[in-house]
């Protein structure tokens, strides 16, 4: 079976990373390797990663696209899986990934993201994020959606693809501070369909908890539509403040 390399970009993620890595430690079958690519954390992020058997890579520049590309360069598995530091995955993650990409017609996949916190599950926001995978490409790329299998995946959905296809399309655009996953979906489409698998991962609701559900949904909608209309990623990033 192809080997799965899990790549986690981090920046000051000490509060969340330990739980995520403990979740990965019980994967059955295990991942081939877990690479934590740090962008200059000032907390205990790298110490936590090293203590739970992850390989720590220090990126000279911060930025998710830059860090994920750096992890992909170091990865030795045939499949790359990009995971946020605050997202929990099912223990059969590797099997789901291998089975999905066992179909040569599929170039890339991701999961359904369920946004949860210590006190609540964000059902409304999670439903919107699920639907966005479909309605965004339908609105802005209807031909590609209907005939080529385009879906737009986002960071919380734990995106995965073959390493060969990732580099053939140039990987993540290092100039993009936001929407880098959706951009990669468009670039991967010549290599096959994009699929959202019918399995759930749990992502932290920390951003929604800070903004509130209505503000968060409004920002998600605004960023998506403006991106679809051609607004620059630099402009869009102004809507998306760092909450750590």
From TrEMBL:
Pfam families in UniProt: Glycos_transf_2
InterPro entries referenced in this protein's UniProt entry, alphabetically: Glyco_trans_2-like (IPR001173), Nucleotide-diphossugar_trans (IPR029044), Trfase_2_rSAM/seldom_assoc (IPR026461)
Glycosyltransferase 2-like domain location: 5-150
Pathway: Carotenoid biosynthesis; staphyloxanthin biosynthesis; staphyloxanthin from farnesyl diphosphate: step 4/5
UniProt-annotated location(s): Cell membrane
Chief place where the protein resides: membrane
Keyword set, alphabetical order: Cell membrane, Glycosyltransferase, Membrane, Transferase
Family per similarity comment: Belongs to the glycosyltransferase 2 family. CrtQ subfamily.
Role played: Catalyzes the glycosylation of 4,4'-diaponeurosporenoate, i.e. the esterification of glucose at the C1'' position with the carboxyl group of 4,4'-diaponeurosporenic acid, to form glycosyl-4,4'-diaponeurosporenoate. This is a step in the biosynthesis of staphyloxanthin, an orange pigment present in most staphylococci strains.
Protein's recorded name: 4,4'-diaponeurosporenoate glycosyltransferase
Organism: Stenomitos frigidus AS-A4
